[in-house]
Amino acid sequence: MAEEVAPAPAAAPAKAPKKKAAAKPKKAGPSVSDLIVKAVSASKERSGVSLAALKKSLAASGYDVEKNNSRVKVAVKSLVTKGALVQVKGTGASGSFKLNKQQAEAKKKPATKTAAILYSASKLKFFIQGYLHEFYVSITAKIYPHLVTHATHLR
Q1: Could you give the 3-state DSSP secondary structure of residue 108?
Q2: Has residue 111 got a pLDDT over 90?
Q3: Within 10 A of 68 (CB to CB), how many other CB atoms are there?
Q4: Residue that wins the pLDDT comparison between 76 and 130
Q5: Given a cut of 60, is residue 155 above it in pLDDT?
Q6: Alpha-carbon span 15 to 32, nearest angstrom
Q7: DSSP character at residue 93
Q8: Where would I find the H helices in 6-100?
């Protein structure tokens, strides 16, 4: 009686490590938020721009609105929460939107005062006196150490 021994199953071949997908390069051009702000600012409507009109103007400028519909909605919501746009009608991403004039005016004002102007004359004088006092004591200590040890009021 010869028993046949079944051959051992072949070891599974070692799997090659998966390669990470290459990062997609960012597309050149303005962001959706920038396009939306430009479209709203170009509008002449007093009551603001509706979402539908906004999508039409984005499509006219060459943006694929059907493919990126959710991006447009998210961008509009984020611009409203940041304060760049004001929602005149509706809730969420629907309704009409205007530019926030208060935020636009705040961005236009440049900072005219520098840090040096903000210092008052007495604070600047005090700073200079303190620096010179420390500098003078360190020089005096190197040249005349016997004088500095007796002059405790200079420390």
Answers
A1: helix
A2: no
A3: 14
A4: 76
A5: no
A6: 42
A7: T
A8: 32-42, 51-60, 69-82
